[in-house]
Amino acid sequence: MVNLEWYRTFKAVYKTGTLTSAAEVLFISQPGVSLHLSSLENYVGYKLFDRTGRKMVPTEKGKVLYNFIIEALTKLEEAEKNFQRSTEKNTPTISVGMCFETFQITLEQYISTLPFNVIIQFGDYPEMVENLEKGILDLIITPQMVVKNAIEYQAFSSETIVLVGGSEIDDLEFNSVGKNENLEEIELWLKQQKWYGTTGDMEHLRRFWQLNFNKHPDFRPNYIVPNLNSIVRCLSSGKGLAVVPDFLCRKEIDNGKIKLIWEGKTPLKNTLYFATRKKTIYEEEIALIKKIFIELN
């Protein structure tokens, strides 16, 4: 008999493209993801993904299976959530969407103090907006505005995307190169360094490079790690460069564990928004979560 968790895992791998990212979404170990996936493949009798480097590329049979189960699986997940709410009438359950790093830096330490149940979900921002509109999520922390009639946005903070380096990086050498503001020399020096990236998309690096050099980066990071917090930890113990939001590394910069190398000739800034439905029964609970984020800024 097939296990429903195998389908959940299959969906997570299909959506994220890697075993590591699927494990983060599901809050299970990577070996657990591999076991679920191999069990499902053995059950159906064919490969669902081709392993290309670090990426999991769905096979044609995998695409057919995904399209066949996704609607039913989504309905089951919604039913599970709604059942939980209906059986806990005295304790509301609030579903909040944000990126993994934002959760770790901000809300994680306050979860146990909240007087209601909380479900945290990670994912792509457009997908989270769709889930907010459908009622699957109640609040999103997002740097992107996707206009929907039923959704309202409230700006509450901003972040600057900066170039940072490890504690052993020679920032004096960069300052020497950069003092003449010759962008070709700056780009050449940067491309000669070791770079860190994440298993997800490289939106921060692409936007930073486009803004400062008017082109897309024509190189791949040397070291690919699970998330932006991992990058900050790796940089704290060695050389290398990365482009990350400043709020993720302020403490490490202040205590000298990593170095702020360059904000760019034109700083790259993101505005952060609270996104909620215009009509919600969880105004008090949402207001409390908003208060936590506002007080931390």
UniProtKB/TrEMBL annotation:
Keyword Nucleotidyltransferase: no
Transmembrane is among the record's keywords: no
SUPFAM superfamilies from the UniProt entry: Periplasmic binding protein-like II, Winged helix' DNA-binding domain
Keywords, alphabetical: DNA-binding, Transcription, Transcription regulation
Annotated GO MF terms: DNA-binding transcription factor activity; transcription cis-regulatory region binding
Pfam families assigned to the protein according to its UniProt record, in alphabetical order: HTH_1 (PF00126), LysR_substrate (PF03466)
Domain HTH lysR-type: 2-59
Protein family per UniProt: Belongs to the LysR transcriptional regulatory family.
Protein name according to UniProt: LysR family transcriptional regulator
Organism, as annotated: Flavobacterium sandaracinum
